[in-house]
TrEMBL record:
CDD domains recorded: PRTases_typeI (cd06223)
Keyword Zinc: no
Lineage: Bacteria, Pseudomonadati, Acidobacteriota, Holophagae, Holophagales
Protein encoded by which gene: pyrR
The entry's keywords: Glycosyltransferase, Transcription, Transcription regulation, Transferase
Natural source organism: Mesoterricola silvestris
Name of protein: Bifunctional protein PyrR
EC number: 2.4.2.9
UniProt keyword Transferase, yes or no: yes
Catalytic activity: UMP + diphosphate = 5-phospho-alpha-D-ribose 1-diphosphate + uracil
EC class (word): transferase
Length: 181
């Protein structure tokens, strides 16, 4: 649940600017590469991947395959979660063989989510190469993982949380700084 009066790090217009830049950077690297595919990490990574797909298809004038990755069962803190975790399906409607896969997530923090995503991905096949695109890199890594494509990089205190809101699920586009509680 969003916190009332949380400071806004990016509004809808600024988010769009950073997504457009991500798209341009990805287009520059993968312009002629027919093997590119996007995999959005549930939940907000999926919505970002859907937006990047539309932008990339417009820029590159080609279809970009999109899959959905659920990492719930691959989390290293699964046993610490209260209640029963909600596991939703992973949907990868294309072969990973010889693909250049771009994992898409909203926030890169400790790196544990991406480690879990890599484990989940490799259970479905062996891509040629895996890249990472995130909207926000907030620092605070616990694992040696970094993104090739970053919308915005900022240092955020460990007692704060970066919350990405997407119009598709939250009714607004914004990046907020919330306190951990």
């Amino acid at each position: 649940m969003p916190q009332a009066n949380a400071p806004c790090l990016l509004d809808a217009k600024q988010m769009e600017v950073h997504l457009q830049r991500l798209c341009r950077e990805i287009s520059a690297v993968f312009g002629s590469d027919a093997s590119i595919a996007l995999l959005g990490i549930r939940t907000r990574g999926l919505y970002l991947a859907e937006r990047l797909k539309a932008m990339l298809e417009s820029n590159l004038q080609k279809e970009i395959p999109l899959g959905i990755l659920d990492i719930t069962l691959y989390r290293d803190d699964l046993s610490e979660l209260a209640g029963s975790p909600i596991v939703r399906p992973t949907e990868i409607p294309f072969s990973l063989k010889d693909r250049s896969v771009i994992l898409v997530d909203d926030v890169l923090f400790t790196g544990r989510t991406i480690r879990a995503a890599l484990d989940a991905l490799l259970d479905h096949g062996r891509p040629k190469r895996v890249w990472l695109a995130v909207l926000v890199d907030r620092g605070g890594r616990e694992l040696p993982i970094q993104a090739e494509f970053v919308g915005i990089k900022m240092d955020v205190a460990m007692d704060s949380r970066v919350s990405v809101h997407m119009k598709d699920v939250d009714g607004e586009d914004a990046v907020l700084l919330e306190s951990r509680s």
